[in-house]
Amino acid sequence: MSEGNSMASENGTDLSQDDTGTIEENPEETILSQQTSVNLVPFIGQRFVSQDAAYEFYCSFAKQCGFSIRRHRTRGKDGVGRGVTRRDFTCHRGGFPQMKPSDDGKMQRNRKSSRCGCQAYMRIVKRVDFDVPEWHVTGFSNVHNHELLKLNEVRLLPAYCSITPDDKTRICMFAKAGMSVRQMLRLMELEKGVKLGCLPFTEIDVRNLLQSFRNVNRDYDAIDLIAMCKKMKDKNPNFQYDFKMDGHNRLEHIAWSYASSVQLYEAFGDALVFDTTHRLDSYDMLFGIWVGLDNHGMACFFGCVLLRDENMQSFSWSLKTLLGFVNGKAPQTLLTDQNIWLKEAVAVEMPETKHAVYIWHILAKLSDSLPTFLGSSYDDWKAEFYRLYNLELEEDFEEEWSKMVNKYGLREYKHITSLYALRTFWALPFLRHYFFAGLLSPCQSEAINAFIQRILSAQSQLDRFVERVAEIVEFNDRAATKQKMQRKLQKICLKTGSPIESHAATVLTPYAFGKLQEELLMAPQYASLLVDEGCFQVKHHTETDGGCKVIWIPCQEHISCSCHQFEFSGILCRHVLRVLSTDNCFQIPDQYLPIRWRNVTSASTNPLRTTTRDRSEKIQLLESMASALVSESLETEERLDVACEQVAMVLNHVKDLPRPIHGMDDIAYACPSHSLILPEVEDTDGIVQSITVGNSHESFTLGKLKERRPRDGVDVSRKRRHCSEPCCRHFGHDASSCPIMGSDTLNAELLGYL
């Protein structure tokens, strides 16, 4: 194809020469793939649930046509958090080989290449509809400038010479039985009922696989995994692990959790994700991981497990082991993938826990076949489906689902039938009564999945897998701590002027307060009507009927809403907030500001109240304080001079202290506290408010320090008071007004602000 005959996609973008090659081709040299025998042909507008699903589909199509494909180019990293939004798949013969100079400056020898500038391709673009990402085909061409292979030839391409996990297991078993490679191949040909030499892999592939088995003995690796856990237990007695051996003295299951993970579970183990969709090829075992969200909306690690088999007994063992790590405390809700054995295990081991299934796991099965079945009606069906998914009442869901099935002719469609049978595990009308801490939102799901992928990357180092996972978890905790500090340093912007908003800003974390603030901004758009004593009907001002039913009993400080958002997320809904403001309530009752979302740290996880603190935590604390000092000192020359003077004094004082004889001793902090210190809050009109709880003389503002100005010709910086408290010893105040001694939230993050 020539330049003038470039292929255009649906969105108007061309597959440029840079994408496929630089040499023009003659039209008579092009060969159109034979599509008459191909049942599944890509088409513009086709949808896929993920990049991998699109790749597998196009790979199957290419194999039938007589060529293979490769991932050619990614595009679209044009926004924070958006990631890749465009992907091109091309023929394996697309593009041209490039000569690259070697280390000594000489050009590489001209090796023969199969690339000839073929411009067959499929382009997919990421689009987000109803908060669920999908990949749409926006460009497709199946025109080649080379001969296509026959079916018995295409299977020999490297892309299709693959060995499935089941075949790998059988080959390993045959090798232990002493069979030769040729005997293995002949036996597998008979088992699969294929002709001689028609397996999807060759003798060379099997020999390479056997060589990898010899290089990595997985049984010994698994035993080494137990040794790693024992080593971690010796270092830290609070490290938890358990394992099970089978009758042949082979590792069957193993699970572990770190000391910090068990502490996090105590505070945030009410809602969990148990992801079991991955395998560790290094150990040939199923990998499961328990994760959740903390009070700042960030992923936190609770533990992981390796299972030899995927059955109910294995999952039951893993769930019982987790409960043993956390003193039998079962979560309120548990999110998993769609697995029948895991479903049965949860029902047996955690009968009081609400088990739910990610809707995205279920819809993945529908994204491939349903668009073809519905055709042009698929978009309308999807909009209708998500409307039903977000309904509030179970009765409305049952009624509307029946109408939807009849409207689109899905009564006999088996996937829709099975989806309805599982409705209590995925449909929000059946889940709103249970607390999920935001785990069902798409953005949180992506954050958790990214964290899991980092954990999976640790399998590249088998000799220290457990330690490597610990390093990733520690890095995640440190990054979360740093991000929390940055969020707290930012001024909280009050947008409504409501006393309820000011009160919530003093109690909730920035993450939780942001969620509540969204509801406060929407509350004025709703009308509140008293229909009975303590009963209100709240509906949008554009609605003539319907709405939500809110019960508000002031004497008991009891409030509830029929939408059940508080039960579902722990954040009050706009309907409740509307009733509270109408009834002249200026503060949210304490029981509706859950401790889980409050801006406090439990004593069990507070590093400053722990007598045995790790040296790395102290270094991290000092680095945070130094970072805050530098950022504040660079504002003015006066600040910089004062900072240099004070740092020099502190440094001299530290040098005068006696040096340790046997290393650094742990420091125990035991400072009294009488007030809750909170960040500055900035209203929309620019007025800065210092929000505190407690007596006014015991509080201080954590925002940006005001510049000191000389008064009456006297330099104020020289008239500083010195704090005599051993935890502080800073200048500018005395022991009676010491900010550190007057804080209930004494922790590493707070000291980092000073």
UniProtKB/TrEMBL annotation:
The family this protein is said to belong to: Belongs to the FHY3/FAR1 family.
Presence of keyword Metal-binding: yes
Record InterPro entries: FAR1_DNA_bnd_dom, FHY3/FAR1, HTH_FAR1-11-like, MULE_transposase_dom, Znf_PMZ, Znf_SWIM
Residue span of region Disordered: 1-22, 92-111
GO cellular component, as recorded: nucleus
Name of a matching Pfam family: SWIM
Entry protein name: Protein FAR1-RELATED SEQUENCE
